[in-house]
Design a protein that fits this description.
The protein is an all-alpha fold and 237 residues long. It has helices spanning 12-19, 23-28, 37-53, 57-63, 70-82, 88-100, 108-120, 124-131, 137-149, 153-167, 171-192, 199-206, 210-220. The chain has 13 helices and no strands. Helix 7 runs parallel beside helix 9 (137-149) and helix 11 packs across helix 13 (210-220).
């Protein structure tokens, strides 16, 4: 019997806008017809995570109510956590309650948000407790970020190989490869050159790929001085 062809991926462009940091474009182009219930929840998660990346925490907190699906509840807790230090303890406590529920604790978005929150807390072992099993490309990519923060590029390279086996051309695989390639180069240039150093010179010298250039462009916008720690490098969630 012939294999059944997979249907169209209605969220492909939305995911890519989010992965590449085009958050407003993700929001503006999120009205997608004929989505399945699961796709609709994923779409809403991506849109609300885009608002979080733009700093609109209160909007997310207000829009997601108690009846929303588990992934959306997790996204709301991320917004609460990031909204200010006074809310972090409460957000973490609620997140742990969801993770302890055997009926929903293994949800991939919930685990992704847990990994993100504990990575922000610099509790990398706790973050990996929820992300290390993988299951989605986003979880695999988050594992790489955590390993890089732990200065374990060997583990990060191992995780990248897993992603390449799943889909070498996936946007997150390409970005993860760029993170690894840039780890040493960014540290060198941003520690030893002025933040006004022309990007085209760095790109020419290092022969960067398109995805590596996007990573450099993205993080150079956050430089407030001539030096930046690699610990600040992270994927917006």
């Amino acid at each position: 019997m012939a294999a059944v062809a997979a249907g169209p991926d209605h969220l492909f462009n939305l995911r890519n806008n989010f992965y590449l940091g085009a958050y407003q474009a993700a929001i503006n182009n999120s009205e997608l017809p004929n989505l399945s219930p699961d796709d609709a929840v994923e779409r809403d998660c991506l849109v609300f995570r885009s608002y979080i990346a733009l700093g609109s925490y209160q909007l997310v907190i207000n829009e997601i109510d108690a009846s929303a699906a588990t992934p959306l509840q997790a996204v709301k807790l991320l917004a609460l956590y990031l909204s200010g230090p006074d809310y972090r303890e409460s957000a973490i406590s609620s997140l742990k309650e969801l993770l302890a529920d055997p009926g929903i604790g293994n949800n991939s978005i919930l685990r992704l948000i847990a990994g993100t929150v504990f990575m922000h807390e610099q509790d990398y072992n706790e973050a990996l407790k929820h992300t290390n099993a993988g299951g989605t490309m986003e979880l695999n990519a988050l594992n790489i970020q955590i390993f890089l923060k732990m200065h374990r590029s060997d583990y990060a390279e191992r995780q990248l190989r897993v992603m390449q086996q799943v889909d070498e051309d996936h946007t997150l695989t390409q970005l993860a490869n760029a993170w690894l390639n840039l780890a040493v180069v960014i540290k060198y240039f941003l520690f030893h050159f002025s933040s006004s150093c022309r990007l085209d010179i760095i790109v020419h010298f290092c022969n960067f790929t398109f995805f590596e250039i996007r990573v450099v462009q993205r993080y150079r916008r956050h430089i407030s001085s001539s030096k930046i720690s690699l610990r600040s490098l992270r994927l917006q969630v």
